[in-house]
Write a structure and sequence with these properties.
about 280 residues, alpha/beta, two-stranded antiparallel sheet, 9 helices
């Protein structure tokens, strides 16, 4: 198989550009595509995501990773637009995902059009991948890593947040302090049933690999159990708890090597896509 080639593209997103990386070894023939969706404070070049995309492309898929327009991160991985981060919402992220999917289907990413999709999402991106898979008929399979099961993550801060107009979110990697405005609270209040991840999990009928570390320090493994319970009627659900693994399965930014936990998760995810796309 030919070596995958990386091309970079820019799409119009809800809050600004969606910087998009496409890795594939064949641009003339339609291949199944996998959308790789980062999480809160993440971006397409964080830690393990380039590795994930490269492995998917080497396995014969078109791998599409991108910065959600509310990430606030530019094409070089720098926090360039903190206000966009502050105004990001779940609904906006889902619309960005639809726009990337539409660009694939329309042939606007420099390769043959495809409407056969897999989705791999991490953390908040995992929850959004569940919402997306529940509504988009082009999605044939789903993989979630450390996915959230509820969208409201800040209940104990909401009153003060609305009083002051923002809360501050620290980026541990860079030390930057980013604003988070009440837009996301308004979005949850306005679109609550649409953003019910557990209800969406019950509607996901495609093959789903649900991966979660048992020692996840950011999204407790109980959330994975809740998703598993919600999706119990799906005979094509596989739950993969990773014993002792944390939120990123040992991945860091920058990456300094692949941990045993990440190696297992990566191998199982690529094999899953191979079986179901």
């Amino acid at each position: 198989m030919a070596t995958p080639v990386l091309t970079r593209h820019v799409l119009d997103g809800v809050l600004g550009p969606i910087f998009t990386d496409v890795r594939t070894s064949d641009r003339q023939r339609a291949r199944p595509a996998v959308l790789v969706v980062h999480g809160f404070k993440g971006f397409k070049d964080w830690g393990m995501f380039p590795l994930v995309a490269e492995r998917l492309a080497r396995a014969g898929f078109t791998a599409v990773s991108f910065n959600l327009s509310g990430s606030g991160v530019d094409s070089d991985g720098r926090i360039a637009w903190p206000d966009r981060f502050g105004h990001a919402t779940y609904s906006g992220d889902l619309e960005d995902m639809r726009r990337v999917s539409a660009a694939l289907g329309d042939g606007r990413l420099g390769l043959a059009p495809t409407s056969i999709l897999g989705v791999l999402g991490h953390s908040r991106g995992g929850g959004e991948a569940i919402l997306f898979a529940a509504e988009e008929p082009t999605v044939r399979t789903l993989v979630t890593w450390s996915a959230i099961s509820v969208v409201h993550r800040w209940r104990d801060q909401e009153d003060g947040w609305r009083r002051t107009g923002q809360i501050d979110i620290r980026n541990a990697r860079t030390g930057d302090v980013l604003p988070l405005y009440p837009d996301v609270l308004d979005d949850i209040g306005r679109e609550g049933p649409v953003l019910d991840i557990r209800a969406a999990a019950a509607r996901v009928k495609v093959p789903w690999l649900l991966v979660h570390g048992t020692a996840d320090e950011s999204v407790p493994v109980a959330e994975a159990e809740a998703l598993r319970h919600a999706a119990a009627s799906n005979p094509a659900l596989r739950y993969l708890p990773v014993d002792g693994a944390g939120h990123t399965f040992g991945a860091t930014h920058p990456m300094f090597g692949i941990t045993p936990a990440l190696a297992v998760v990566l191998d199982e995810s690529v094999k899953w896509m191979g079986r179901h796309l």
